[in-house]
Amino acid sequence: MNGTLTKPYTNGTSVKPSTNEILVQPQQVLKADADGFLKHNVLDLFSLVGRTIVITGGGRGIGLALAFAVAEVGGNVAVVDVLSEPHPHFRELEKFNVKVKLYKSDVTNFEILKTTFENIVQDFGRIDGLVTAAGICPDEPFLNRKPESVARCMNVNVLGTYYAAQLAAAQMQLQDPIKDYAKRGSIVFIASIAAYVASKGQTTSDYCASKGAVLSLAKALGVELAMSGVRVNSISPGYMMTDMTLDLAQKNPHLGAIMTNEPPMRRMGDRTDLKGLIVYLLSDASAYTTSEDHLVTGGIHAGRLL
Ligand SMILES: NC(=O)c1ccc[n+]([C@@H]2O[C@H](COP(=O)([O-])OP(=O)(O)OC[C@H]3O[C@@H](n4cnc5c(N)ncnc54)[C@H](O)[C@@H]3O)[C@@H](O)[C@H]2O)c1
C-alpha cells in the first residue's frame, strides 16, 4: 500500500482485455460454490468495520447523515467539503470510536481534490468507499440563467462527482480487498428525483440536467469498472428534510407545502430514510448490485395522488 495515485486504474491496466480474457469458461462455472450463502452472516455483510469511506459534501445535510450511518456500523469517515466549519453535529461522530477527519477542499478543482485524496490515503491508509453528496441547486427561470451560473451547477454536481469517482477508483485499484467477498470498493452518487421529473414549484433546469448526468454516469461506470471489482450505484432522494430545505420552506411556505404534499406518503423524507440504504450499498450486502439507481421518494417517482 502506498499513498500515491499514479497507477492506471481500469482493470489494473489501460489496455482493453480481449474477449478470451473476459469470458468465464464452463469448467470454471462448475467449480463455483452454490452454497456460499451459508458462510455469510447478514450482520457481517452489512459491517463497514475497518473500511474507509470518503464523503464529499459531508460537512452538513444529507452527506453528514450518511457519515453517521457509516460510523454507526464501524466505518472510518473522511469528509471532503468546502465548508471551513462543519455543522455542529459533525463533532458527535467521534463518539463512535472510528477515525473521522474533515478535509476542506473543492470538488470542482481536480488538482486540489487530487491532493485531498492523497492526504486521505496518507491519513487513513486506504479508500474502500465513496459517497458524492456535494451538490448545489440553483432555482431560477431557464430564460434568465447566465452561462457562469449554469457552468457552476454542472461543475459541482457533474464534474465534482466525476473527479471524485475517478480519484477514488484509482486508489481502489491499488489496494487488496479487505475481504475476498468485498472486492475492491463501492461508489455511491447522490443523484435526485429531479433526474426523473421536474420539481413542482421550482425552476431548476440545470440541476435536473446535472442529476440526469450523475445517474447516467453511475450506470456507465458500474459497467466499465465491474471487472476491476469496483461497484458504482446512485441514490435518488425525493424531498429530504435538511437545514437547506427547511430554510427554503421558511422563506417560501408554498414550497414547504409542496414538499410535504407531493409525496404520496404525505411527508418529507427524514435523512434517517437514507441511512440503511447507504450502508447496504457501501457494504458487502450489495456485492452483486452495480449500475443501479435507488429511488427514496415516498412514492413521488411512481405517481401523485394530487
Ligand atoms: N435535500 C434534498 O431534498 C435533496 C433531494 C435530492 C437530492 N439531494 C442532493 O443531495 C446532496 C446533498 O444535498 P443537501 O440537501 O444535503 O445540501 P446541503 O447544501 O445541505 O449540502 C451540500 C454540501 O455540499 C458542500 N459543497 C457544495 N459545493 C461543494 C464543492 N464545490 N466542493 C465540496 N463540497 C461542496 C456544501 O458545503 C454542503 O456541505 C446534493 O447533491 C443534492 O442535490 C438533496
Automatic annotation (TrEMBL):
Which of UniProt's keywords are assigned here? NADP, Oxidoreductase
Organism domain of life? Eukaryota
Q: Per its record, what are the GO molecular function terms?
A: oxidoreductase activity, acting on NAD(P)H, oxygen as acceptor; oxidoreductase activity, acting on the CH-OH group of donors, NAD or NADP as acceptor
> Does the keyword Membrane feature in the UniProt annotation?
no
Q: Which PROSITE patterns match?
A: ADH_SHORT (PS00061)
InterPro entries, per database record: NAD(P)-bd_dom_sf, Sc_DH/Rdtase_CS, SDR_fam
* Pfam families registered for this protein in UniProt: adh_short_C2
Q: Which PANTHER family match?
A: BENZIL REDUCTASE, CHAIN DEHYDROGENASE, PUTATIVE (AFU_ORTHOLOGUE AFUA_4G08710)-RELATED
> What does the similarity note say?
Belongs to the short-chain dehydrogenases/reductases (SDR) family.
Designated name of the protein: Uncharacterized protein
Please name the source species.
Answer: Cladophialophora chaetospira
Q: What is the lineage of its organism?
A: Eukaryota, Fungi, Dikarya, Ascomycota, Pezizomycotina
